[in-house]
Input
Amino acid sequence: MSFFYTPETIEKAKKIDLLTYLENFEPDELVQFSRATYCTRTHDSLKISNGKWYWFSRGFGGYNALDYLTKVKEIPFVQAVEILVGKGELVQTNNHYFEEENKISRLIMPEKNIDNNIAISYLKSRGIDEEIIQKCIDDGLIYEQKDKHNVVFVGLDNKKNPRYAGLRGTNKTRFMQDASGSDKEYSFRLVSKNCNDSIHIFESAIDLLSYATLLKMCKKDWENENLLALAGVYQPSKNIGESKVPIALKSFLYKNQNIKDIYLHFDSDRAGRLATEALKKQLENRYNVHDFTPYIGKDWNDFLIETIKNRSKKKEINRESR
Output
């Protein structure tokens, strides 16, 4: 089975400048250097101006986001085009949509640290349950990066091969980045062996783990749910009715034909509301789509932290009243 992009689609990808790409897909990477010049948080010598960019420390540059993804992040060309225009633009050479899993893209996994202590401490500081963290570590879904000590969230295919790795900083910099060669079709997820008719969708792995923790706090079996993170904010089209379903969700639904209910757990901000509206329009003719927005805080981690605080206050009040 093989796929290719038409010349028209490639030209479409080439028209997306780097500033636009970073603003929409990696906003935390974008740093304003001067009035009309930007750089990236990871590479401060990479300057962006007038639609072009140049990496001064390496001595090369480019004209668009496609150049950046292939030259700087070293993402394969076809996958880079997919990131910019969506896998829906692929032309297929037979009747099947998704590639067989025996062809694995060149994923460069961050080197593992000798232990996961800093990663565990960070996730616990975000309110995530330690038992859930340890289960993910045991299953090869979470580990700590050597040297920089980022948390690495791993996405596996059906053969347990790593296909995606998302890095999250454990300090105050809010560093977030996908490892080179990551395939968002296999973004971080917790898949149940028992549940086959529903799925819960989140923007990030932290939100996913927060929701799993909340389920456990409510004495519910968090391992009995399908939980999928989209590895970033879903960006609908300007015309919401023309928006594409994110590749991670589209792939999961294609491979799990029994799904009936989809629960959207996006943020309560404008971007999250737009994403929810877009996906509901795309999916509600085939599925029961439910909007589960946190009613306290911006996202599910905010909600988890507030829930923990409120429970602690109640315990303290009960102690004092004795």
Notes: The radius of gyration is 20 Å. Residues 87-104 have pLDDT under 50 and may be disordered.
